[in-house]
Amino acid sequence: MKVFKSILRASKCEMIIRQRSTIIILLAFFLLMASNAKAQNELTSAAFHGDIKTVKALLAKGVDVNAENTENITALFMACYAGHIDVVKTLLASGADVNIKTKSGNDTPLIIASQNGHTDILKVLLKKKPDINAKNNSGATALILASYRGHVDVVKTLLANGADVNVKTSNNKMTALEAAEKGNHSEIVMLLKNNGAK
Length: 198
Description:
By secondary structure, this protein is mostly helical. It is 62% helix and 0% strand. It is built from ten helices and no strands.
């Protein structure tokens, strides 16, 4: 009986040790996840603000260049949106995915740079061979959005790199030509027509 009680006590001790070990492992896991989320938020914030020093430091620490922040956006999107070419170059050199899409709008870095008129960033992205005709949730391409917003140099660059001039949005079937006409951008209208827009 003493032997049985001794075994039972040892068994209970092992179970308590295992439970505590499991709790410690789970706690470490959640702390690591929180730390990773914080680091990713710092990376996207630094990319948005053009803080190249912080971007490089975080990448050197091993922060995943393609991980999303708490709003499901990567650092490359933020840099493309804000127009920070040095940050874009650094992120691409570190393996940022040029074709990654946002969860909310299905936008690509190329779409973001194009709709915001960042021709210099567009040219850097194009060197990585992105899908130039990628569509967002409404079916708009970089060319359609740049045409609507009146970004002449972006439109020229997209056309020179093979953007489909006659692709239509999925929701209202608008082409780049119709978008340029709607935005009253006559120079882009002529440019598109000279490149086969119908």
